[in-house]
Specification:
It contains 14 helices and 51 strands. By secondary structure, it is mostly beta strands. The strands form 11 sheets. The protein has a 22-stranded antiparallel barrel. Strands 1, 2, 5, 8, 9 and 10 form a 6-stranded mixed beta sheet that branches. A 5-stranded mixed beta sheet has the order 13-18-19-16-17. The longest helix is centred in the N-terminal third of the chain and has 17 residues.
């Protein structure tokens, strides 16, 4: 029998110490000491870095430093607001064997901000020379965030990058868009995500491997990627090795997760009274009798021990919960844990020589879910390797490989319907356990959650990337990138039969169906791009020209099958199913599958020119073809041009305002096509067929069926996107104060909209065509301040703000129906009535109805009385109604709000002093309206689609109500079976604006004098919190981030996370 070897964090640490010991055995240490000053004043906090390794130190309050390393090639001194200085080893003064001295005088300057290099399409540029719209997030902003994936960590960190997480479930990931909704057609407006140049998943990437993230937002920056980049590009660059001795880093995070918000149900007696009143207000009889109410009270006060009674109609069974249950359960509290544990471990090694460097990493993350019965959990395992080798002076080979495994396991009953049904089916009176102590479903979700089966999913990503670089002469470089990715997924779920127990404790069948479902998926993707660039400078002129080509291909296939009749519950596999129902009748298996592929090809070129880094110009041109369209409309030209003027480089600015380090104006224009259609081949259709689904019988069996396919528009082609961008970037006071402001306009033309109206004699459905346009306008602003005092106290602040609105500029809606998009409509519009208030007396309602002589409020409902809503007659026609539901005749409805998130912001505050560091990051939305019309908001709607939360207790009640008087209530009186009080209206429109402390972190780095005693270069410990506080005025049962999620805003909750961990470098 083979033994399984498990590498625990303890093993990993031992390996790290061993590597360190072996290396130090053969290494002779060099120590450099000195002092850093400015005008003979000591500077604290200056970073001293040993070039070619990860060894670095900082000066103390006296400006003194000590740095030790096996070898020293050169030392680099950097400090915010001061010029960077580099000293070669030969410039050091030798004091004794292995001991050297170097005193340094730093001069104030623009600092390093303007020299920052930003990754852009097929290359990099100095940030000060950018003319397109690019936002950058570095590794430090993502460090030690207790999140499940990199998408969550990026939320709020880049202006214009909109990340929405409207569910906390671990099987789904936040949605991403850049600068808002880009299309309402049949295509996707998701950005292109490239990881080291290859398309990949941010959710499946180890966040600790990320070096930087560049967000290309306008066509000037993104058009080099053509039709895949119509709505922006996210470029992720992962960490690479650094020349020098091997550096080993191990870091971990231990986390405790808890729901950010959990609705609270009414107690059982209050719930029963609430439901009875809703039933009576609708003209019915109370559901809970006086005897039933008394039993509920007796159970609450402990005088009754049984959660239900024996079924009056069959003494062998316990009575059904809806009719007879008297338990007192808060089903949210029952079904969810109060907290869940998670942990993450990361090990990385990097080093190398001047010719070859390497970076290796491994990551393990395990996160437990919040389900109390048969809990859910998510695990991620990843391994990455990046090797860069300079084979000769003119040839370089780089290889990058990454393997990621994601495992997700949940109860089979944890589906979307669980969240929706938890409130309406989970009455507090329903028994959780029967009087004998067995889980009891009558119905309730606990039994199915615990014993109803498992849903297990595994997904593997394998990335292989090879890069060849040839530079035969200085300035002329040719690069070939060969990227290959395979994605494999396997999913299994089994739905088991369920058993309740009778009065004697014997099991009996409650749910008689069972089945097994298996699903397999594989996707192969390859991408080859080859480009050559030439870089030439003469005098103040600098030109860079690039040309290249790219091809990519995706092949996808899946297969799914479901078969009924699990024979052995402990072995729920397909070949141990009977294919029959409980009565032995054959059940036709369900089989599905598909095989698809698509490809693109493109040729591109780029020209960059600048004069003295003062006048900047960039032009891009791409010629793209996609297999998704027919040959006569398959190819398209996509140009862009951008220009900039760095006014700070002008003599009149440099002389009159030396505090201005950068003041750059930039503008861009570009055109792109969008080939990312929802259906891969929208101009082709297949004949619809069905298995055993005919509406007639042949030999006592339903036959297979087939029907005629629909028509396809031969004119269907690309959506096209035009963008304009105008911005200003600035840096003042030695770059301590920096920021940017830009405005943009994006127009989307020829989206696929509804089919035109044709005579019925056509005989089939009219095909869709390109007939819809959109326009999005907005702005983005960034303002940051960073400084360090002479005593070494560093502090910084960065504020981000962005906004956009989207308008429909063309749509085939001749009558202006409010049920469809309309020309001139702003996306997110909410049409509704104006609320006058809740009638406190019958007389007040009668007076209101008398003021509406032409029909009152009868179009919305009948039997109006005290506790009902009074609506305003906005059009003065003597009645309340919705008119003809058109823009020209909306009746008494008006635009009362807009659900588009406006003025999204992020605020990052950070400081460090001596060995302590602290940061807090806040994120939110300043303005958003939302109409949530589901039963989770209203409480009582129809009897079987209602719930009773504590928030719903604030409803209209008169003095004779058993729950007490409440005339100044928020909610109208509950009434089953009518929506008359629940029309879209101003009173109940939700203000979904919010501010959230997204992350707060406190860290301490042990002094090097302490850590070097046991061979550790750097040791940092920290505590961190995620989603720890939220400020919002939204209704209490909703989280402002998830109010638009799921069905009626009912979702798996987001989590508040507290974590602690350490990072140790050897």
């Amino acid at each position: 029998m083979k033994r399984k070897i498990v590498f625990t964090p303890c093993w990993l640490c031992c390996i790290c110490f061993l590597l360190l010991s072996l290396q130090q055995t053969y290494a002779q240490s060099i120590t450099v000491r000195g002092q850093v000053t400015e005008n003979n004043r000591p500077l604290a906090g200056v970073t001293v870095k040993n070039i070619g390794s990860t060894v670095q130190a900082q000066t103390d309050t006296q400006g003194k430093y000590t740095i030790s390393a096996a070898t020293v090639t050169a030392l680099e001194f950097t400090f915010l607001g001061y010029a960077k200085q580099r000293f070669e080893f030969s410039q050091l003064k030798q004091i004794s064997q292995g001991n050297y001295e170097l005193n340094v005088q730093l001069d104030a300057s623009e600092g390093d901000v303007l020299d920052e290099v930003v990754v852009v399409g097929f290359g990099s540029q100095k940030k000060t020379n950018l003319t397109g719209s690019v936002a950058v997030v570095d590794a430090k902003q993502l460090e030690n965030r207790p999140v499940r994936n990199a998408i969550q960590a990026l939320q709020g960190l880049a202006p214009g990058l909109n990340i929405s997480q409207n569910s906390g479930t671990m099987e789904t990931n936040p949605s991403i868009n850049i600068r808002g909704t880009g299309t309402i057609g049949t295509s996707s407006s998701a950005p292109l995500i490239l990881i080291d140049g290859s398309e990949g998943s941010l959710a499946a990437l180890n966040p600790q491997d990320i070096e930087s993230v560049s967000v290309l937002k306008d066509a000037g920056a993104a058009s080099i990627y053509g039709s895949r980049a119509a709505f922006g590009v996210i470029l992720v660059t992962t960490k690479s090795g650094k020349a020098g001795r091997t550096s080993v880093n191990y870091n971990n995070s231990f986390r405790m997760n808890a729901p950010t918000l959990m609705p609270k149900m009414m107690d059982s007696y209050t719930f029963a009274q609430y439901f009875n009143q809703a039933e009576v207000n609708a003209g019915g009889s109370p559901h809970f009798s006086a005897e039933h109410l008394q039993r509920i009270l007796d159970y609450q006060n402990g005088s009754l021990k049984n959660s239900t009674i024996v079924d009056p109609n069959n003494k062998l069974y316990w009575a059904e919960g809806y009719a007879y249950g008297n338990d007192n359960n808060d089903w949210f509290d029952v079904m969810y844990r109060d907290q869940a544990f998670a942990q993450e471990h990361n090990l990385s090694l990097n080093g190398g020589t001047e010719k070859t460097t390497y970076y290796l990493s491994g990551n393990i993350m395990k996160q437990q879910g919040l389900m109390a019965f048969n809990t859910d959990h998510y695990d991620r395992y990843s391994v990455a390797a990046k090797i860069n080798s300079k084979v000769s002076d003119i040839f370089q080979v780089n290889y990058n490989a990454r393997l990621v495994r994601e495992d997700y396991d949940r109860p089979a009953a944890l589906t979307n319907s669980f969240y929706d049904d938890l409130g309406r089916q989970g009455w507090p009176t329903l028994p959780l356990y029967d009087p004998n102590g067995y889980l009891f479903s009558s119905p309730s979700p606990a039994l199915a959650m615990k014993e109803g089966g498992q849903d297990k999913s595994s997904k593997d990503y394998i990335y292989q990337q090879l890069q060849l670089i040839l530079e035969p002469i200085k300035g002329w470089r040719t690069t070939g990138n060969f990227n290959y990715r395979t994605t494999t997924q396997f999913r299994h779920w089994d739905s088991q039969r369920l058993y309740n127990h009778d009065v004697n404790g014997d099991p009996y069948l409650y749910k008689n169906s069972s089945n097994v479902y298996e699903f397999g998926l594989k996707e192969n993707y390859y991408n080859i791009n080859i480009f050559s660039d030439y870089d030439k400078s003469w005098g103040d002129h600098h030109v860079k020209v690039m040309v290249g080509g790219q091809i990519e291909h995706t092949a996808y296939r899946n297969l799914g099958v479901q078969r009924d009749g699990i024979i052995i519950p402990d072995q729920p596999v397909l070949n141990l199913t009977s294919g029959t129902d409980i009565n032995g009748k054959a059940v036709v298996p369900s089989v599905s599958g598909e095989y698809q592929k698509w490809a693109t090809a493109g040729f591109f070129g780029r020209l960059n020119y600048n004069y003295a880094e003062k006048y900047l110009l960039e032009a891009n041109l791409r010629y793209d073809g996609s297999s998704r369209f027919r040959s006569d409309s398959r190819w398209g030209w996509f140009p862009s041009v951008s220009a900039g003027w760095n006014i700070a480089k002008e003599n009149f600015i440099a002389e009159s305002a030396p505090f201005i380090n950068m003041l750059k104006l930039r503008a861009s224009y570009g055109e792109l096509g969008n080939q990312n259609t929802d259906v891969w081949y929208p101009t082709y259709v297949t004949q619809p067929t069905g298995t055993a689904n005919g509406a007639w019988l042949i030999n006592n069996a339903r036959p297979n069926s087939a029907s005629a396919p629909g028509l396809v528009s031969a004119l269907l082609t690309w959506e096209s996107i035009n963008t304009k961008n105008l911005g200003v970037d600035f840096a003042f006071l030695n770059s301590r104060l920096s920021g940017s402001f830009e405005v943009f306009e994006r127009k989307t033309f020829n989206m696929v909209g509804p089919a035109p109206q044709l005579p019925n004699t056509l005989g089939t459905q009219v095909p869709q065509t390109n007939n819809t346009d959109l326009k999005t306008r907005g702005f983005e602003a960034t303002l940051g301040w960073n400084d360090r005092t002479a005593s070494g106290f560093a502090y910084g602040a960065k504020f981000l703000l962005s906004d956009y609105t989207t308008t429909v500029t063309r749509y085939p809606n001749a009558i202006g129906s409010l049920s469809n998009y309309r020309e001139g409509q702003k996306l997110g519009e909410i049409w509704g009535y104006q609320t006058l208030g809740i009638a406190k007396t019958e007389e007040q309602m009668s007076q209101h109805l008398a003021s509406l002589p032409n029909g009152g409020q009868n179009a919305l409902g009948t039997q109006w009385g005290a506790g009902d809503i009074m609506y305003a007659d906005l059009n003065g026609d003597g009645k309340i109604d919705g008119g003809s539901n058109t823009e020209a005749d909306p009746g008494d409805r008006r635009v009362i709000g807009n659900s588009t998130p406006r003025y999204s912001f992020g605020l990052n505050l950070n400081a460090d002093y001596k060995n302590f560091d602290f940061s807090v990051f806040m994120q939110g939305v300043m303005k958003r309206d939302y109409w949530q019309g589901g039963y989770y908001f209203w409480g009582a709607t129809s009897k079987w689609w209602s719930t009773g939360l504590v928030d719903h207790l604030d409803y209209f009640r008169t003095a004779d109500n058993p729950l007490g008087e409440n005339l100044d209530a928020y909610y109208a009186r509950p009434v089953f079976g009518t929506s008359k009080n629940q029309q879209t209206q101003t009173r109940f429109l939700q203000n979904a604006a919010y501010i959230r402390i997204k992350n707060i972190q406190l860290g301490y780095t042990l002094p090097k004098e302490t850590t070097k005693r046991f061979g550790v270069e750097r040791l940092r410990v920290y505590v961190s919190g995620e989603n720890i506080w939220t400020g919002s005025s939204v209704a209490g049962m909703f989280d402002p981030e998830t109010i638009d999620g799921g069905s009626n805003g009912t979702v798996y909750p987001l989590t508040k996370v507290w974590s602690a961990g350490l990072s140790v470098t050897f």
